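Hi all, long-time lurker, first post. I run a small reading group and we've been trying to get comfortable going from sequence to structure in the token notation. Rather than ask abstract questions, I figured I'd post a concrete chain and ask someone more experienced to write out its structure so we can walk through it together at our next meeting. Sequence below, copied exactly:
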Amino acid sequence: MSQAIQQTVYAAQNRELPPPLAQAVAVANDKAGNNRTLTRATLYRWLAKFDLRQPNAVELLAPASAGKTRRGSWLREVVAPWADAALKLYQRPQKPSLRWVHDQLPAYLPKGVTPPSYDTLRRFIGQMGNVAIEQGRMGSREIKAIKPFVRRDTSKLWPGDIYMADGHAFDAEVAHPRHGRPFRPEITTVLDTSTRKALGWSTDLAESGLAVLDALRVATQTGGIASVFYVDRGAGYINAMISGPGTGLLSRLGTTLTHSLPYNSQARGIIERAHQSIWVRAAKELPTYIGKDMDAEASNKVHKLTRRDVKRLGASRALMAWPEFVAFAADQVEQYNDRPHRGLPMMSDPTTGKRRHMTPNEAWAKGVQDGADLVRLLPSEADHLFRPQQQCRVLRGEIRLFNNTYFSHELTEYHGEGVNVGFDIHDPSQVWVHDAEGVLLCKAQLDGNRRDFMPESFLDRANRRRAEGRARRLQDKLTEVREELHGGPLLLENDPAQRVPFLAEIDALRLGQTVDVQAIEVSREQATVAAVRPAFRNPSERYEWLKAEGHAAWKESDKQFLSEYVRDPDGYALFAERYELLGLAWSEQDEQELNSFKNPARKVA
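-- Answer (accepted) --
Happy to help. Here is the structure in token form:
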């Protein structure tokens, strides 16, 4: 090797290389001048860079100018002094226009650097790669949509190997099962990766571990126990009921839980596509669809219609009732499983004879026929496996779970030990106690030492806490709105001076002086009214108190206040719905009472 290098260097320096090699030396040097040849150190450096084990071994030897192309590995011969500042302005998440960059660039250049013309700047940006130029303008999650990706092959998987699950907020509004107002339910779907079949699904008022538990229960009973459960890192999948060691459902099933990387929804593109094929397609069949494809004007009309109907009638015919929605969702899943899927192999249609893709049901049936090893559950096993479990400690035969106390004499010898307690989310009357090996020890019954008079089920307790939290937040918002609208010092209606004439008459009687009896009665009535009239924090409270007391309690100042308040767009109109619900709405009789009152301003005039 050393002798060959020495001979090559000697031939290059004495101009004895063959013409093709002599031309290659000039290109390889990539330097100005025609008299440059090779040196021993240069050849050794090239040999050190060249490694046949690397796929781009030849590219490593290529000079910088040889890599100058319009796309991909673009390199500039001479970097303009304004280039770095221009890229920092252009590669922002706000995605500024090139014209804006050109206008702002002079302020960011050092002294003595001449800014480029707009055409020069446009050519500079245009020579960069389509992906490289978007660095900074697109985040790490968004830019993946234009980068190369890896297609995952599922043809070697068997049915039941990998289940995928994900939650989806339904893109249409339906009637809430409790109060009838419009809301968007959360749907959790479990999909078999090999056949794309939707094996299980569940819907709930919001994303929760219970919905995931129910969907996985249905999928396991339908298709068998999966080897792998592939999900994201949402709270519905990372919880004790699903993934807890020993007590989690997956550990009891023997299923391995694996998560996709954060911000990498492309890795679960199969189930993301299923959301479009099942739930987005279903939502578009309803008039309350609120997806991005819905016409804004039509969506606004439906939104106003449903709210108006619920406010007046308590329900809206435009909103699908909850039982109807559950049946509608089940039908959509059945239709999806019977539709040809582009991700599945081709086959000849048994009816028409034409070539088409398999349906998920057909792919599942073929996989089972070809020998898929499905692990089925017995009905007796399902009751035990799908009850949520939690670790508890036995204390003198008692187990405490969710503020309830359960007792069994069979737990006497387990005092101080930890056990796994299975519970029914709908029935708190008993729990199932298992040891660390999963052996059923006993059924513990709900006994004394309860904190609550009536026990709460796990689901009722969770719903109550969520409703209480929502009520607190709404009350805080209402208080904030009232303070913004009626800020300032409190309006005190109590006037101690009104009692002074009455007290003066009492003093006159004590001194034996003659007094006007009728005046005493009037003073007494005034004193009584003043004593019971509360201190109002805002005009709304004053209005509610006056309406509740009736016309007899209205003074002239009250009538003047009501005359202005009911006509103020920032007064009565702001709380009109509240007054209707409380039965304190302004009526014609109230208006007649005000009409009989002469405005003091007119009287003075």
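A couple of things your group might point at:
The chain has five domains: 2-67, 83-146, 162-369, 387-458, 488-604.
Confidence is low (pLDDT under 50) at residues 66-78, 488-503, 527-531, 600-605.
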